Amino acid sequence: MPLKSNTQSISTSPDATAPANTTAPSRRHPRRQFLKSAVVAGSAIAIPHIVSSTALGLGNSVVPSDRIVLGGIGIGNRGSYDLGCFLDQEDVQFVAVCDIKEKQRQAVKNRADLKYGNSDCDTYRDFRELLTRDDIDAVLIATGPNWHCTAASYAARAGKDMYCEKPCTKNISQSLLLAETMRRTGRIFQAGTQRRNLPHFAFACELARTGRLGKLRTIYAHPAGMTTKMSGWVAAEAEPPKEEVDWDMYLGPAAWRPYNKQLLDGFNFEKGGGLTGGGVLEWGSHCVDLCQWAANADNTAPIQYDAPDEKGELVATYADGVKLVIRNDGWLKLGSCPVRFEGDDGWIETGDSGKFVLSSPELLAGREVQEIGGYPATFHVRDFLDSVKTRSQPKANAEAACYSHITCHAANIAAFLNRTVKFDPVENVFIDDAEANRLRSEALREPWRI
Amino acid sequence: MPTPFHFHLSGRIRLTFLLSCFVFWFTASNLQSAESEQPLIELLASDAPKADKAITCKKLAVWGSENAVPELAKLLPDPELTSWARIALEAIPGDAADQALLEALEITEGRILIGVVNSIAFRKSTGAIEKLTDLLSNQDVGVASSAAVAIGKIGGDAAAETLLATMADSNSELKSAAAEGVILIAETTLAAGDNVEAVKLYDSVRQSDVPKQRIVEATRGAILARGADGVELLVDQLKSDDRVMLNIGLATARELTSDGTTDELVKSLDQLDPFRKGLLILAIADRGDDSVIPAMSELSKSSDVSVRVAAIAAIQSIGDVSCVDTLLDSVNAENAEVADAAKMALANLSGEDVDAAIADRVEDSDLREAVIELIGKRRIAAVPALLKAANDADASVRSAALSALGQVASINDLSVLIDRVNDPKNSADAEPALDALRAACVRMPDRDLCAEKLTTAMDNASQTTKIAFLEVLAGMGGSKALETVGDAANNGNPKLQDAASRLLGGWMTIDAAPVLLELANKADNPYRIRALRGHLRIVRQFIMPEEQRPVMAAQALAAADRDAEKQLVLDAVKRYPSIAMLKLAIEVSKTPTMEQEATQVAMVVAKQLTASEEAMTLLKELHYEPIDVKIIEATYGAGELQKDVTKAVRNAVGDIPYVALPNSSFNQSFGGDPAPGEKKLLKIKYQLDGKEGEAVFRENTSVVLPMIP
Q1: Bias regions of kind Low complexity — which residues (chain A) (predicted)?
Q2: Can you tell me the distance from the alpha carbon of B662 to that of B21, in angstroms, rounded to the nearest whole number?
């Protein structure tokens, strides 16, 4: 076939037949990003090692001193998947797990011990004990979203680098503190937004960032629901022994409520602070994040957020006029977590199928983009581990995660208040808007702090 | 809970529809606009349940004023409500909230006190320093540590003095927290432009007996605050045998922005071993300063592979035309890592004249193949050189040239590739020429003109080549390409018919639908089933005006004489429910072998149409009997990662064998993804009218339980 199956345009848009942009893409990349940009700038988008594998300690056999010693915090469903990606890496040694659930601790320990043929994986109920270990270089944080930012902050202050699942923060204040803490402590932080390291998403963002689509006009993100919501305070049940389920540690920074088994679902517990949660944040931390990258907006955020319209579409506007449309419908069938970028000279849409649709096949000329469906995190984990070794910033670094999360939180606030809000991404405040500004943060339950 | 409601229809038909709503332990906030403050305050003062008081605190965080502070303050000693109260008190502007928190320092202890301290820190209550200082001697180390950090967050000269004294106390258990506080003050001081004072603070921490991470943070700050004078301290870290200190050196090498820093870092490379040198080269490149290009070019000739690869990677980022020859010197390196890095760098090098400098080397015998490849990758307009190389005696050079032509040829150059495919002088050229032709054709802005050229070329082509040209046309798309492929599908030549009908079946635009339908309606066409399925693929998968889809589906149904294609019509009906589509399902049900399946689909569609009156009327034609549906067990996941979703599935069934999940995403419906990144299955054990069955459904598909004979 002339093209790979993923490269054919199925668009009925008039743009699809428009002459394609023939302007060569800019090849100058912003400072501090070249390693990551290089990944997508090559003629074949795979995920190559730019640094010598020798320098990274990735020879045929990795000596112990080249290994990154890893601990895991909150290793449930998602964490188990992430952990598998780490365990596949030759230069990782997983030595400790912390979980508030005894069954989970044991399951992870058994898995690690089976892999290494020993019984060395230690278990902890309190992650602070795990963080005191000098031999641990980095941690995988895959607790429920309630804990992410707080646990990341403790890990940073303990001198650990971290791969932290998304959503990484509960509100705007946490987003800013997260980035500030990582800068101050000199830590490497990788948000679990692994689509930044998948070839088709990286290619789509590259087309937008480098001007191949012409002047960028509108970018689209799928939030997977727009309902803002908060977890409730349900009827008290008898609390299990702490060794079995540590309810106090489970609640962590979330305001107190009595034990109820129904609440033991970290994935859904307290996703957002203030009165807002869920909503745009759930998938926005992926899709909006990709839009931020596409719009060269890793260090800023839209300045205006309109309330969702009757179709549930929410439009945010960047300072340069680019529109971010957060919508549930209107997507080509390219899998979950779709994004679409439209410029004056073309557009691209892609999703978790690994496939993408272009306004013109010429946008793909000279390129091969691997079709990787199913949103694996392997490449993202590798990016993190390389950054731990080189101290270069990974693709989903704290600064990028900060502003993609701020964008989601601000959109949620507009949805919650059901009106337009205006945001200053330099001062990080809503303009003349006390209500919105009071939703920027939420007190943590004692004794936790960021 | 799900809300059941019943339709009582005439005759034998009674359908119960469950309008399932997503019920979980979330409760959507009922607060959608500003609430009056006074009732909220009164609720706090009442005997209302704590749960109500908790949510009230959250409301007051947005809409409360100083008037709410007294009642909120009363909740601070309550271990179950203190955190809720602080949510409001942290947010309410004005001195009253500050004062309430200060007063709470006197009446709380332990964890609750820590929470109050943290809230004071969040509000940066400058008047709290004295009381927080008192807490540094609290017996509870947690309290004292929180106070130390809080003092740091609030900042100021007095705060710094207090914390420096605490940090200096060799017996203090608060060293780490005090150091954290000092660093926080130093950060604020530096941000305010007082570098001298910031250096003092950072150095105080560096010289103290505090945990290493505090030393790391202070060292970073000390380097940055010193500006250009910080390079020496930075280089000390780069030389350190302690990997942690080396790491902070590498981090600050990227952060320090003072004039002259880049030069100093480059000079320091000579002091480092290859391992450190490679890492620092990467950090220098991240600074984006092109003054280091000569140094990087020199380093790209290093005898150490890691240094060489790092330098080449740096050149890729910051290099210019002056680096072309240097990089070309490495493309044939024995070490594959070096050669690959050089090729990648050349493919991505920016700057004016880079293209010309690369193309100028095309005649260098040692570099010819690599340069030709680069011409293609960079899409350099060097067609004459490529045409010449396409006739080279060396097959690999010819192949590279043809491949590059695929990337750079214009419409006027296509004939070279077409001729090479049609009549290759050397058989080895046929395949690369065809690949190049494919690549070239999909790039052409004028697809129809390109298709015209290919169509003309087909006249004199062999059958194999004709098929290859058809494939190129299909890859391009466009009206002329469709016309040519459509003609071939009607051609008397069976092999061309086979290829063309296959290509039409995978056509990527909906204008192929009429062509496919015409083929499907030709009784003597051997590929009429394939054509019909291609038509149905468009109906099922493509974007089109919604009124067009049922029309096309009806046309397909009229042409279908096998159950397999009728099932595809039903699939389209399920995907795009509408009254028109419902009518089609009822039409399909008239085929006896399809009656049961079509009835189920009709039920599903009717339900999705929220049981409109018109849909109900149509359903009467199906003589549907309600079924007793019981869900025995349901699990969702992949491999060992399974989630029990029995309850959710039970909530989503009524008296039809259809599971109406609240969301088309199974993950959303079942409260999370039990096996992220894996292909998941929903397994259901069930009973229909007492007969037991099992069914498995792929993720996010319609869940229609198969009937049990």
Answers
A1: 11-25
A2: 6
- Per-residue pLDDT, B614: 81
Contact B673 A42 (CB under 8 A): no
* HSE toward the beta carbon, residue B294, CA cutoff 13 A: 3
State yes or no: pLDDT of A17 exceeds 80. Answer: no
Position A199 pLDDT exceeds 60: yes
Q: Which residues of B touch A393 (CB under 8 A)?
A: 254, 286
A227 touches chain B (CB under 8 A): yes
For B262-277, write each residue's pLDDT tens digit. Answer: 999 999 999 999 999 9
Question: CA of A48, closest CA in chain B: separation in Å?
Answer: 10
Residue A232 in any domain: the answer is no
Chain A residues touching B275 at Cβ < 8 A = 55
Q: Are A338 and A222 in contact (CB under 8 A)?
A: yes
Q: How far apart are CA B343 and CA B346, in angstroms?
A: 5
Task: Enumerate the residues of chain B whose CB falls inside 8 A of the CB of residue A234.
Answer: 25
SS3 at position B18: strand
Residue A89's alpha-carbon distances to A59, A111, A379, B227, B276, in angstroms, are 12, 15, 10, 39, 23
Express each pLDDT in A386-419 by its tens digit.
999 999 999 999 999 999 999 999 999 998 888 9
Dihedral through CA B420, CA B422, CA B426, CA B432, nearest 10? 60
Partner residue opposite B27 with nearest CB, options A37, A232, A365 = A232
pLDDT reported for residue B709: 77
Nearest CA among B527, B482, B468, B472 for reference residue B502: B527
Report which residue type is found at A35.
L
Cα gap A92→A62, rounded to integer Å: 9
Q: Please answer whether residues B41 and B67 qualify as being in contact, where contact means their C-beta atoms are separated by less than 8 angstroms.
A: yes
CATH number at residue A136: 3.40.50.720
Residue pair A411/A171 in contact (Cβ under 8 Å)? The answer is no
Q: What is the ipTM of this complex?
A: 0.88
Residue A145 lies in a domain: yes
Rounded CA gap, B382 and B387, in Å?
9
Q: Residue A100: inside a domain, yes or no?
A: yes
Give pLDDT tens digits for A103-136.
Answer: 999 999 999 999 999 999 999 999 999 999 999 9
From chain A, pick out residues whose CB is under 8 angstroms from the CB of B116.
Answer: 446
Using the 8-state DSSP alphabet, how is residue B321 labeled? G
Number of domains in chain A: 1
Q: Which bin fits B682, alpha (ψ -120 to 50), beta or left (φ > 0)?
A: beta
Per-residue b/e over B444-479, b at no fewer than 16 CB within 10 Å? beebbebbebbbebbeebeeebbbbbbbbbbbbbbe
Chain A residues with CB inside 8 Å of B142's CB? 447
| CB contact (8 A) between residue B50 and residue A233 | yes
Return the structure tokens found at B281. 């080269």
Confirm whether A68 is domain-assigned.
yes
The A residues from 126 to 145 touching B (CB cutoff 8 Å) are: none
Q: Which of B22, B111, B118, B286 to mutate to test the interface with A (most CBs of A within 10 A)?
A: B286
Dist. CA B274–CA A266, nearest whole Å: 46
